[in-house]
Amino acid sequence: MNEIYLIGLGNPGKKYSKSRHNVGFLLIEDFSKKYNSNFLLKDKLKSFYSEFKIKDNTYRLFLPNTFMNNSGDAVRAIVDWYKINLDQIFIIVDDKDLPLGKIRFRKKGSSGGHNGLKSIIEKLQTNNFNRIRIGIGSPPPINGTNNFNTISHVLGTISQEEKSILDKVYRQVIESLEQLNTKREQLIINELNSFDKDQI
Q: Which residues are catalytic?
């Protein structure tokens, strides 16, 4: 695996840039910054694109500009353009069903009700692709009822406290992704899935 494709999910535009739904974008942006690599818009890939090398490996990073619910259009364009094997792709995505700061790396699975993953599964016609889900915690109940405002939670702005936890998560995921070609994938999966934000 000398080429690694990392696709963060989120919504383009300033309005959404600090929202919980954009943790996929935020992580990918942090990774790119670490290697002083900038993003350029690639219309044919329906994404902003950044590229750098770590040792002999090329990392290609993407931020789809299709909006979350149509993420599959960008992923399909990327797969078709590079003619890549799906095991080279890693989708980074938020998950409201995971506690804040938890990480789940899965090699396949359902969308879990996430519209971005749903769109990708639809466009690729398979759910066999790597996804790294980052917990953003579930929405608080509305005024003591059993009702939840999921949309305002996922589109809400990340608080300072949440940001300090998510920064630790981004660091861990980036460190693991940097080792994709030097460490067995199963070790990386175990490392991410057992990550404990309180031990850092």
A: 21
